[in-house]
Amino acid sequence: MKTKIIKFSLALLFTFGSFVLLAQGPPPPPGDPHGGNNDIPGGGAPVGSGLAIILTLGAAYGVRKVYLHFKEEKSTLEE
Q1: Are 63 and 55 in contact (CB under 8 A)?
Q2: Residue-wise pLDDT tens digits, 10-49
Q3: Which of 41, 44, 60 is CA-nearest to residue 52?
Q4: pLDDT, tens digit, for every residue of 55-68?
Q5: Which distant-in-sequence residues (6+ apart) come within 8 Å of 62 by Cβ?
Q6: What is the dihedral of CA 52, 57, 59, 60, to 10 degrees?
Q7: Which residues, other chains included, contact 42 with Cβ-Cβ below 8 Å and sequence gap of 6+?
Q8: How many CA atoms lie within 13 A of 4 on its CB side?
Q9: 8/1 Cα distance (integer angstroms)
Q10: What is the CA radius of gyration of the chain?
Q11: What is the rounded distance in angstroms from the CA atom of residue 76 to the CA atom of residue 67?
Q12: What pTM was estimated for this model as a whole?
């Protein structure tokens, strides 16, 4: 019962505490986005190469999980 009261109290604190807390004001607006050598507003970060890296790492992780699953299944069948 005591843990339920503590959990309920914390939930109320976090819920209503977020209404009271104030955030910092917004930053000042940026200057001319087309000024300088960069023609792309917001910068020119290469998204394509990062996406390829994340997809490759995700595929490698999936292959490893499948390999470990079949390795574990094989060891349980041998016993």
Answers
A1: no
A2: 998 888 877 767 667 777 877 665 555 555 555 666 667 7
A3: 60
A4: 999 999 999 999 99
A5: none
A6: 140
A7: 33
A8: 1
A9: 11
A10: 26
A11: 14
A12: 0.41
Per-residue tokens: 44: 């020119």
CA angle 20, 21, 27 (to 5 degrees): 135
Q: Are 34 and 41 in contact (CB under 8 A)?
A: yes
| Cβ pair 64, 56 in contact under 8 A | no
Separation CA 53–CA 64 (nearest Å): 16
> Whats the size of the chain, residue-wise?
79
Quickly list DSSP for 9-46.
HHHHHHHHHHHH--PPPPPPPP--TT-SS--STT----
Token pair listed for 49: 């190469």
